[in-house]
Amino acid sequence: MTDPPPRGWSWKVADPAANAELGLLYEPGTWGDLLKAAWAVPLARRVAVDGPPTLLDPFAGAASYPLVPAAAERLRSAPSLGIEDLLDDFLRRGRLPSTGALALAAAGEGARLVVYDVHTARRATWRGLPGVTVAEELRSGEELLAARASEADLVLVDPYDLFERFEALLPAALSAQAPLLLYLYNKAPRGPKALARYRAFRERLTALAGKRCVRVGRAPSDALLPRAYHEVLLVAPPPLARALDPVLGDVTRRLAAAVAEAGAYEAPGETT
Description:
Layout lengths: L30 H17 L6 E4 L6 E3 L2 H9 L6 H9 L2 E3 L1 H9 L4 E4 L4 H5 L7 E3 L6 H8 L5 E4 L4 H12 L6 E7 L5 H18 L3 E8 L8 E8 L1 H25 L10
Parallel strand pairs: 1-4, 1-6, 4-5, 6-7
Antiparallel strand pairs: 2-3, 7-9, 8-9
């Protein structure tokens, strides 16, 4: 499959050799990435209790990314996320792991991760990693959902544009009964149309979830005048969702508070 056409801008770091032409439309290591990781790790550990699980990540991105200064500063200023033991090895190498890589590590020995990404260079970063199968024969994340979701014990769905195309993605993601972790860049603060779209997303998610529980975690995109909110959403059987409530609720409240408090009070021009 050929790579998608360029959109004019892509994320890059200062060292050209580190970019590997990943073609990203966002910077890895946002507050949303940290929140997503803080949910994915305890969730993966929980589903691994009954034996080595199969994880599915159809919009996997790269296996890891260069640790840029902005992401490193967020990690330094963040409260404890309960994932530090898994992050340390990556950080020592100047890397930031993807959510899929962290979830696989959290799931432990024998766990399997099936991944796909539409971009050739990002997909290539997964090849040869222990426990990882790259669905090379497919052409899209949607195809991977259709082909393999029924055999998964946990599904991760976090395309950067879920807000724009949830009508197509949610039915496929929720067709299986496996726990589902979604990431949404919630643009509702941008005006009435965006708010209406967010409400439509939530209504559709609730309808498709059926008797499964839905949990939503939310943090501002920025400390000062956030343009959007990072949201992580879990759809899971009631026993699993309720078992995770204490840890997910606690880490989300602490992270959201840390971001909001950083921009809550200013003393412009003052130095200490």
